[in-house]
Amino acid sequence: MDKRQLCALFRDRLAQLLAAETKGVAGFLRDTGMDRSALSQFLDPSIDRLPRAETLRRIGEARGVSVDWLLGLENAPEGRQQVAPSFQIEQADDPRRSPLHAWHREAEGQKLRYVPSTLPDTLQLSDTPEADAPTPRQPREENVLDGVIRNDLDIEIAMPVQTLQDLATQSGLWRGACPAECARQLEHMAETCDARFPALRLHLYDGQANYSSPFTVFGRQRVALYIGEAYLVLTGREQIAAFTARFDALVRAALVSPDRTGALLRRLADTGEWAG
C-alpha cells in the first residue's frame, strides 16, 4: 500500500466521520484540535497528505474510532471501535531507550523487511570520519539495523535507485559532498551486498514509478514507520500483512535481482548511472 492509497482511505474515513458528526464541523475541529485549513487539505483528493500520528490519535479518541480504522487498515463493526493497543509511538532520538534491540531479538529466525529513509544504516561506512562523510545532513536517527549481528536475521532491503544515483552524482542530500567519499560509500555497499548475500538482499527499484514511505516489518510481530525521531508502531495482523504485501510489491519492481545489485552499485560508483 503506497502513500496515495493510504491518503485516499483516510480521506474516505474522515468524510464518514464528518457525515455522522452531530456537533457540526466546528465541533469536530474543536474536539480534535484541528484547524479548518488542515481539514480542507485532508479532504482534498488532489492533495496526498496524512496527519501526524498525534492528530490521528486525537481524532480516534475524540470520535471513538481506531487509528487502524482511520487509515483503512482494518474494518471494525460499523466502522467504529475504541482506540486499540495495536498502535503506539516509540521515540528514536535517544539510543539508550531505543526499542530496536528488543525488536531484533523477537524477530530472530524470521525475515526483516526494511525500506530506509536514505541509506540503509547497515550498509553505511562505519569508519568514515564525520568531517569526510558523504553528507553531514543525512539523517542518522533511524538505525533500524543497528546492532544486528551478521546472518542472525534474514534481511531484505528495498530502496529507490535514485537515492544512490544522487549519492553518486553528489546531488539532492549529497549536494556538495566529496565525490571520492561518495564513490567509496557505493563501493562499500557493493562489497557488503556481495559478501552477505543471500542473508542480506538489497532490492533497487525505480523511485519514479514506485513510492514508499520508510518502514520496517519485524518478522510477524510489528511494523515500524519511521516518522522522524520516532516510530509509529503497528502490531495488528492485518496491518503487518498489508505492509508485507507492499514490501513484496517493491521487491517485484526491482530493476535487477539482488545477486546482481553489487554490479549495479559499482556501475553507479564509476559512472553515476544505473542504466546501460
TrEMBL record:
Outline the segment boundaries, as ranges, of region: Disordered. Answer: 116-141
- Spell out the protein name for this chain: Transcriptional regulator
Say which species the protein is native to.
Roseovarius faecimaris
